[in-house]
């Protein structure tokens, strides 16, 4: 049982839920639920993102094993609970499962799944500690995940692919903040992140107005803004590691509200509510398993 929990800890279950929210939002953006009712492709894409995200998180710990022996010795690999070789195999199986699930649907989906694997490994192995390219690479992983959801309907993907730039900006901000989780950060970083958050919210509002769903989006975007800005303000006032960790955790879990907001911006309040229901699940898992 202890080893099983160790493997679960490696995948960061609370974070995996946010990946599912990403692809659901992508499906709404593509217009899939307006023309289709078949849930089999929905299940395949959701299984794909679960495998891909889990693999990326596992390899994050694999490549950070030596650093974690100093900074986070309680993690499964440095603590000795999960051998490094076993973690590599587990991460590889997750990646393979994610690609396989996407491949059962259509070629575009499998290409995006492969791109996500490449982006994850590139970040974990080479770019994680680069000041600009690291956060950018991490953002690209999330942008590709939104595109994976859009790939459920290729015509929608062709029309709306550029919206994947928004999660790139959002995750760039969170990744910049996370640099100070262990040793503390700077107030300038918090201000920069706050501005990037504002860019994201402005883009969401613009899309909602263009789609004529401004009032509907307010139901979701207001709690989203509160969830990300309140801990960020606390981190700005006192940029110590603990406060920064809370801001990062809130930013990651708030992805669910961001994805619900996307759905609302495209008029699908039903899926938006379904995505919101993932929030208490993710928050509950975040109390049991680490988010960062």
UniProtKB/TrEMBL annotation:
The chain crosses the membrane at residues 12-33, 39-59, 80-102, 108-124, 131-154, 160-177, 189-207, 213-232, 244-263, 269-290. Its main location: membrane. Gene3D superfamilies: UbiA prenyltransferase. It holds the Pfam family UbiA. It is a multi-pass membrane protein. Keywords: Cell membrane, Membrane, Transferase, Transmembrane, Transmembrane helix. It comes from the Bacteria. GO terms for cellular component: membrane. One of its GO terms (molecular function) is transferase activity, transferring alkyl or aryl (other than methyl) groups. The keyword Ubl conjugation does not apply. It is found in: Membrane. The keyword Cell membrane applies. InterPro entries: Prenyltransferase_related, UbiA_prenyltransferase, UbiA_sf. NCBIfam families: prenyl_rel_EboC (NF035940). PANTHER family: CHLOROPHYLL SYNTHASE (PTHR42723), CHLOROPHYLL SYNTHASE, CHLOROPLASTIC (PTHR42723:SF1). This is Polyprenyltransferase. It comes from Pedobacter antarcticus 4BY. The lineage of its organism: Bacteria, Pseudomonadati, Bacteroidota, Sphingobacteriia, Sphingobacteriales.
């Amino acid at each position: 049982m202890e080893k099983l929990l160790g493997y679960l800890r490696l995948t960061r279950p609370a974070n995996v839920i946010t990946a599912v929210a990403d692809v659901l939002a992508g499906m709404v953006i593509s217009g899939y639920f307006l023309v289709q009712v078949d849930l089999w492709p929905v299940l395949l894409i959701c299984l794909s993102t679960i495998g891909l995200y889990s693999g990326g998180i596992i390899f994050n710990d694999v490549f950070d094993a030596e650093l974690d022996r100093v900074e986070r010795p309680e993690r499964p690999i440095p603590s000795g609970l999960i051998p490094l070789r076993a973690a590599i195999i587990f991460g590889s199986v997750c990646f393979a499962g994610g690609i396989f699930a996407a491949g059962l649907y259509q070629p575009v989906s499998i290409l995006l799944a492969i791109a996500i694997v490449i982006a994850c490994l590139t970040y974990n192995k080479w770019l994680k500690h680069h000041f600009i390219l690291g956060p950018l690479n991490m953002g690209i992983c999330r942008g590709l995940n939104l595109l994976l959801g859009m790939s459920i309907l290729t015509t929608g993907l062709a029309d709306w692919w550029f919206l994947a730039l928004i999660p790139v900006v959002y995750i760039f901000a969170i990744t910049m903040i996370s640099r100070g989780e262990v040793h503390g950060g700077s107030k300038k970083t918090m201000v920069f992140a706050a501005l990037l958050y504002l860019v994201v919210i402005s883009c969401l509002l613009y899309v909602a107005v263009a789609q004529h769903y401004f009032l509907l989006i307010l139901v979701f975007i207001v709690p989203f803004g509160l969830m990300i800005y309140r801990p960020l303000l606390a981190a700005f006032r006192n940029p110590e590691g603990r406060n920064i960790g809370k801001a990062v955790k809130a930013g990651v879990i708030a992805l669910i509200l961001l994805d619900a907001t996307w759905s609302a911006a495209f008029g699908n309040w039903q899926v938006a509510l379904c995505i919101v229901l993932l929030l208490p699940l993710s928050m509950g898992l975040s109390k049991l398993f680490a988010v960062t």
